[in-house]
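User: Sequence recovery, please. Input:
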């Protein structure tokens, strides 16, 4: 059985589920937004070392011992009961749900794409850049700071320009990558309120999204320079031509090595290609989108992910952990 931690409205989940259905692979949606209102979770530990866990919702009772592979796709916020009204009570209930669910994940014997703890650690942009550099990938000169003087000095030292972006985002706070303009320099003191990522501007407007599935790389060039916004292709993918792309061999090797050191079986990496053709690594998203690339290029990314989940689910023996020897920040 394959578990999918996501929600029914996610198009990527729907697409991979269809591939699993075509292959006759059993799967079950585990929607964390149903916790605790419409999903009942139970775990039992016995003195002889036996552990059991169940997930019960409208689809029935699932013995978590039957789940041999799990896709950590889009976990959703818990939805608490309306009867719990006081803020501190809601905070307590939320914390207890988080501890229960995380405990279930840790105790399951399933193989993960990706393991939640490794996924979280791998999402740290500072850590990504450090490991990418160690693997021989070219990374941009970067300053992450909440010190206005440090930010001002970094911007002044980059005559070709600087872009800035956030560490993370929510649907309410998402911001595109933006160039630092003259008027922005006058507001740079505002970084004292929260750290900001500043990076050298790599000109050219040619981006590459490289999706890695268990060491297999699907790369696509995205011409942001032909869209309405050259600094971030996500703003206007409709008008940014997308075509299959071949990464240089050394860049592909470095990217695969990076995902393994991060403990990722899946990752969506972004590069910016400079005027000289150099591929500059920007970041890797452990749960990044790929359907827009698949639709434009025909690359079988969804099928590759479904096949990976099936291999993990049906292996006679446990598949060797991709994360053996990973780097763990402490």
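Assistant: Recovered sequence (330 residues):
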């Amino acid at each position: 059985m394959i578990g999918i931690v996501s929600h029914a409205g996610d198009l990527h989940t729907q697409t991979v589920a269809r591939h699993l259905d075509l292959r006759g692979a059993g799967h079950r949606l585990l929607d964390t937004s149903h916790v605790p209102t419409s999903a009942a979770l139970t775990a039992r530990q016995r003195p002889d070392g036996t552990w059991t866990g169940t997930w019960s919702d409208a689809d029935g009772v699932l013995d978590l011992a039957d789940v041999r592979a799990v896709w950590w796709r889009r976990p959703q916020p818990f939805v608490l009961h309306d009867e719990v009204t006081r803020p501190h009570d809601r905070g307590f209930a939320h914390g207890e749900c988080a501890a229960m669910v995380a405990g279930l994940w840790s105790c399951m014997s399933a193989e993960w794409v990706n393991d939640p703890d490794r996924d979280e650690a791998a999402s740290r942009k500072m850590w990504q850049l450090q490991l990418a550099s160690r693997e021989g990938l070219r990374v941009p000169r970067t300053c992450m700071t909440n010190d206005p003087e440090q930010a001002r000095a970094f911007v002044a030292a980059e005559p070709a320009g600087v872009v800035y972006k956030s560490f993370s985002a929510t649907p309410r706070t998402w911001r595109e990558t933006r160039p630092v303009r003259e008027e922005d320099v006058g507001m740079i003191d505002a970084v004292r309120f929260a750290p900001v990522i500043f990076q050298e501007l790599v000109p050219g407007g040619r981006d590459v999204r490289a999706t890695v599935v268990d060491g297999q790389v699907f790369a696509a060039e995205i011409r942001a320079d032909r869209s309405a916004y050259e600094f971030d292709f996500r703003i206007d993918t409709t008008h940014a031509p997308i075509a299959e792309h071949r990464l240089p061999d050394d860049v592909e090797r470095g990217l695969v090595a990076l995902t393994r050191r991060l403990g990722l079986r899946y990752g969506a990496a972004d590069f910016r290609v400079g005027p000289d053709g150099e591929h500059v690594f920007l970041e890797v998203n452990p749960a990044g989108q790929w359907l827009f690339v698949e639709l434009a290029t025909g690359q079988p990314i969804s099928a590759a992910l479904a096949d990976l989940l099936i291999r993990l689910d049906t292996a006679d023996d446990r598949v060797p952990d991709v994360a053996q020897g990973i780097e763990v920040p402490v």
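The radius of gyration is 22 Å.
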